[in-house]
Amino acid sequence: MDRFADLERVQTLILQRIEKLELSLLLPQELDVKGGSDVGRNVLTTEEFLSGILRSQGVSDFCFKRVPKDYYDWSLDSRKDVLDASSVDHLCKSIVMVNTQASASVTDCSDHNNSKYYVVVVQYTARLNAENIKNFLYTLNNGKIAKKKFNMRLAPEKESLELTGFEHNGVTCIGMKTDIP
């Protein structure tokens, strides 16, 4: 009886390793999150998709929590409680920003130092400071690009969705369609 339990355990581990390998070989755009209509594609829930990416990168300690639709109407303390966060200062959001003053030749994210788009992670308790982002990008480029060539604004929802594959209030830095710096 113990031999069967050992065999089952080994088989489960092998299947998990195969799944991890498959997910690490697929690019995000090759995967479809449940709800898509492309026949023959790998269809995963958002949680399965993100879990596969995290596991393939060696991250094993994570969890996902679904929240009610009115979550963003709640107080920060209520949000902290439902997410089991240590404090409201641990609550963050990912925001896709667009550089509206980028030169005409900068149209995508191929140059991480001088990209059309950036993802910024901001604490709920902090204010987004576009001037700080501009200064960071100026410094990142060793002053070779004039500060006036950086004007960061919130990307329109449609652009954010196209770039990340995630709906409004669901953007995460993990598993985006585009490699946005």
From TrEMBL:
Signal peptide: none annotated. It comes from the Eukaryota. Transmembrane segments: none annotated. GO terms for molecular function: aminoacyl-tRNA deacylase activity; ligase activity. Keywords: Ligase. CDD domains: YbaK_like. One of its GO terms (biological process) is aminoacyl-tRNA metabolism involved in translational fidelity. Coiled coil: none annotated. This is Proline--tRNA ligase. It comes from Zostera marina (Eelgrass).
